[in-house]
Amino acid sequence: MSATPQLSVVVPVHNEEDNVAPLVGEIVAALRGKIDFEIVYVDDTSKDATLARLRELQATVPELRVIRHLSNAGQSTAVRNGVKAARGAWIATLDGDGQNDPADIPKLVEKRDAGDAQTKLYAGWRVNRQDSGSKRWASKWANAIRSRMLRDSTPDTGCGIKLFEREAFLDLPYFDHMHRYLPALMQRAGWKTVSVPVNHRHRTAGVSKYNNLNRALVGIKDLRGVAWLILRSRRTAVEELPR
Question: Can you give the residue ranges of the Glycosyltransferase 2-like domain (predicted)?
Fold first, then answer.
């Protein structure tokens, strides 16, 4: 692995001790020999053996880097801190629960390589979700409301697997839960976004950190905030004058 890999895979985790080793193994299998990459795990103050498992894996996986929060800060902050620590110009994100398939990362990279330079986000689209019926129903309505309010032309913003340019991401306004609104925020900044169908799997270990009620209560406030950001956005091209 070089000092400046082509791709950084950022994975936020909280209490995912049984998912760490399988997911790291899948990331390595999907990317090693195909692209120069690093893996940046961000441990958000796990209370189980997640951090210990990651430290053990570092002995055999040279691409793996581990950073940890000193206090619990949530998924959006974990993603952002992982992106800030990353050395690659492009970032792939995965949820730490193993429901995203690392084998889809090369597909996103291929879409980027064949795409428009103005496209800075390739967002996973779970066309065959493996969640409970209640969670799928809640997400369907949440996506419909979000799409109507933000007009981001994105069928699935909650999918954890995404590929985006590091510089463009770090230029976005930061707030808790921002990771759920990346297409709208990227479009607000003047960039194009593309949704790419990806695989989705059942959780095989651990428990979900969210339920439908807390997602809904937070989502209402976030939607209003993102809509306000879009309304108040102003963009213009700039040029530097010669001496």
Answer: 8-169
DSSP code, position 32: T
pTM (predicted TM-score) = 0.88
Q: Judge contact between 177 and 210, C-beta under 8 A.
A: no
Closest among 157, 166, 154, 160 to 194, alpha carbons compared = 154
Which of 64-68, 138-142, 155-159, 231-235 is predicted with the least confidence, judged by mean pLDDT? 138-142
Residue 114 CA to residue 163 CA, distance in Å, equals: 14
Q: What is the pLDDT of residues 119-161, one digit of tens each?
A: 999 999 998 876 555 565 556 666 667 767 787 888 888 899 9
Q: Are 79 and 12 in contact (CB under 8 A)?
A: yes
Helix, strand, coil percentages in the chain from 3-state DSSP, rounded to 5:
40, 20, 40
**Domain 7-231 belongs to what architecture?**
Alpha-Beta Complex (3.90)
